[in-house]
């Protein structure tokens, strides 16, 4: 009887993993209409991202993987920023704003950082709860790839280069 329960639990987990891969894998869908409130108080909308390839990273200062991957995100931004590439780091609603500001300033993050105080942005982008979650948006404003956890940065760079080369 125990074996059947374990097999059933394994089957449910496998189905959930397959569904997550299907939802978070490749393909295109329009990026959700969102308004990002940046650290300086200004706002940026999803519509403002059109015409650029954009990395949208949901993160938290309390997330060790997020903190560990941030230098790679900075390096990716620095590598492609002159070619029509943008990065937007969206801090989760549970992250204290003072921590986000401190992290951004002490690490001299060179890209736009937003705070999702209400959780509305994370909800609009597929009800993001796990960090880091990263979306790649093409020049037409479509999500072409998403990653839960740190992406393979070599693979990410190849994708960015392909998207930047497209009209």
Tell me briefly what this model is.
The chain has 167 residues and is an alpha/beta fold. The chain has a single domain (27-165), classed as Glutaredoxin, CATH 3.40.30.10. The protein contains five helices and eight strands; from the N terminus they run H-E-E-E-E-H-E-H-E-H-E-E-H.
Secondary structure tally, helices: 5
Distance N to C terminus: 58 Å
CATH topology name? Glutaredoxin
Query: What sequence of helices (H) and strands (E) makes up the elements?
Result: HEEEEHEHEHEEH
Just name the CATH architecture: 3-Layer(aba) Sandwich
Name of the level-1 CATH class: Alpha Beta
Percentage of residues assigned to helices: 40-55%
The major pleated sheet works out as: 6 strands, mixed
Radius of gyration: 17 Å
- Shape estimate: globular
Oligomeric state of the chains in view: single chain
Number of strands: 8
**How many structural domains?**
1
Write out the CATH superfamily name. Answer: Glutaredoxin
Report the β-strand fraction as a percent range.
Answer: 15-25%
The spatial strand order of the largest sheet comes to 1-8-7-4-5-6
What is the mean pLDDT? 87
What does this structure look like?
The chain has a single domain (27-165), classed as Glutaredoxin (3-Layer(aba) Sandwich). It is 41% helix and 25% strand. A hairpin with a 4-residue loop joins strand 7 and strand 8 (142-148). The radius of gyration is 17 Å and the shape is globular. The chain starts with a helix and ends with a helix. The protein has helices at residues 2-24, 64-80, 97-106, 120-124, 153-165, and strands spanning 26-30, 35-37, 43-45, 53-59, 85-91, 112-115, 133-137, 142-148.
């Amino acid at each position: 009887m125990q074996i059947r329960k374990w097999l059933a639990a394994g089957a449910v987990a496998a189905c959930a993993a397959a569904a997550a891969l299907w939802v978070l894998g490749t393909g295109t869908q329009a990026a959700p209409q969102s308004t990002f409130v940046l650290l300086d108080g200004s706002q940026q909308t999803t519509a403002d991202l059109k015409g650029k390839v954009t990395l949208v990273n949901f993160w938290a200062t309390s997330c060790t993987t997020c903190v560990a991957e941030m230098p790679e995100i900075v390096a990716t931004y620095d590598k492609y920023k002159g070619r029509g590439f943008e990065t937007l780091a969206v801090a989760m609603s549970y992250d204290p704003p003072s921590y986000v500001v401190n992290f951004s300033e002490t690490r001299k993050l060179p890209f736009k950082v937003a705070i999702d105080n209400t959780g509305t942005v994370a909800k609009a982008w597929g009800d993001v709860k796990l960090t880091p979650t990263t979306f790649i948006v093409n020049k037409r404003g479509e999500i072409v790839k998403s990653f839960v956890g740190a992406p393979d940065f070599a693979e990410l760079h190849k994708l960015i280069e392909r998207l930047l080369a497209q009209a």
